[in-house]
Amino acid sequence: MPPPSWLLPLLRPRPFLLFGTQSAPQFILNTLKLALFTHLVWEHFYAVAPCIGPSMLPTLSIEGTLVLHSKLHSRGRGCKAGDLVSAIHPMDSSVYVLKRIIGMPGDFVCVDPDPEGEGGRMIQIPEGHCWLAGDNLPLSRDSRKYGPVPLGLIRAKVIASIWPLRRYENGLVLVEDPESRI
Question: Tens digits of per-residue pLDDT, 102-123?
Fold first, then answer.
C-alpha cells in the first residue's frame, strides 16, 4: 500500500539542510565572512562585557550586570565628565576598570573629598589625562589612589546596560529635585 498523498512531500529526499541551497564551499565562505565581520565589529566598534565589583554601586550591581561598550570613544574621543568608561588599569595592564570620568584635562578636582563637605586637596588634571572615580567612593580604587589616568588607557565608553536593561547618559547632568518645588 503506497503512502497517502499528503505524506509524499515529506518523504521526498532533500538537500542537506545545513547548507540549504548553497554548496559546501559557498557555505564555508559565507560562514567565514560572517565570523570576520563579527570580529571586526567586536574589536573596533561595540562589545558586551560583564561588570564585577562594588566600586560602581548603586549605578551597577556587584555582579550580573552586562554593559555595552562603544569603542568609537577609545582614547577619550568624545568623552566628557560624567561618562562611564572602561580603561586599562594604570598599575596592572592585564586588568580593566569601569569608572566614571570626574574631570578632563585642565579641570580642577578634589583628590580626597570629605564626607562632611569640607574641602580636600585640589589638583589640576594635566593635559592628555582624566580623573576616574567609582560611584561608591569608600570601596573604589580609582584616581585617588593612582592619580590622573592617561586618555590613551581609555578603551571604551559604556552606552547601555544589556542586563538589567538600562541606558546610561552623562551622570553629572543637573537634575531638578522634585521636592524642591514644594
Answer: 999 999 998 877 666 666 789 9
